[in-house]
Amino acid sequence: MSREISTAAVTARTAVTPAVWGTTYIVATELLPDGRPMLAACVRALPVGVAFVLWSRLLPAGVWWWRSAVLGVLNIGAFFALLFVAAFRLPGGVAATAGAIQPLVAAGIAAVVLGEVFTRRTAVAGTAGVVGVALLVLGPDATLDALGIAAAIAGAVCMAAGVVLTKYWGRPVDLVTFTGWQLTAGGIVLLPLVLIVEGLPASITATHIAGFAWLAIGGTGAAYANWFAGIQRLPIGVVSFLGLLSPLVAAVAGWAVLDETFTGVQFIGASLVLAAVVAPHVSPRVGQPVRTQ
């Protein structure tokens, strides 16, 4: 029983991260400069990553030079870039729905790399998650764009691969240092896109600074450290489904703060998302939680 309670506590703590990520949309639209998605992504990652590394005064050694780079690209650099490409080329609902395949992809990769069992329950929960996100955020006038869809799917694959490799390789140092290595590597990948492709805004206001500070400190530094800690302690088939909480929180935040509508169809979608998140914790015997390693 104590083992089950411990697992539930770790799961609840890890779930805070995707919930915090769900505030990104409202912060980006209300507090950040318009038309600067790569700047937002870079500021989220690079400053706090460098700060973490300077605090620990530890650099990667041996194989961890290239492993940190790979994880930084998958979890941060490429993921953020592809996410924003999808967001710019697709309605938000389409991008979120395409990204909702991530739990299924992660579970599939984990089955190959980690030997975790890909169960029928995982397949059903993953499908329910995609349908739930679609009902929650997909509008009737949504349009499709081939490049945008490709970017959204590639972003989901990057995140799934990053989650699995983070667990497979483990971490050789404390959590802050480990997070700092990845955020720095990802931020370095994003920096040229900001300077060469996008450019800097003409001015930065106090509101912009507040938005950047929240995304960097709460939404990235603390959130990713918490996320990586959860990955180490939970099966991929559990932790990957927690990511579905992000579009759910985004929709609720839009309704609560921006006075957006929340329809009956969206309520059904939200219920399916919550069911998909909870399903990996329930054993075939009703009411008996899964014992995770």
Give a written overview of the molecule.
There is one protein chain. The protein is an all-alpha fold and 293 residues long. It has one domain. 76% of the residues lie in helices and 0% in strands. It is built from 13 helices and no strands. Helix 1 packs antiparallel against helix 10. The longest helix is centred in the C-terminal third of the chain and has 28 residues. The radius of gyration is 18 Å and the shape is globular. The protein starts with a helix and ends in a 15-residue tail after the last helix.
The radius of gyration is: 18 Å
* Total domain modules: 1
Structural class: mainly alpha
What is the count of DSSP helices, taking H or I runs of 4+ residues? 13
Q: Which shape, going by the Cα principal axes? A: globular
Report the portion of residues in β strands: under 5%
The secondary-structure element order is HHHHHHHHHHHHH
**Largest β-sheet summary:** none
> Could you tell me the mean pLDDT?
86
Describe the oligomeric state of these chains in a short phrase: single chain
Question: How helical, in percent, are the residues?
Answer: over 70%
Gap between N and C termini, in Å?
Answer: 14 Å
Number of beta strands: 0
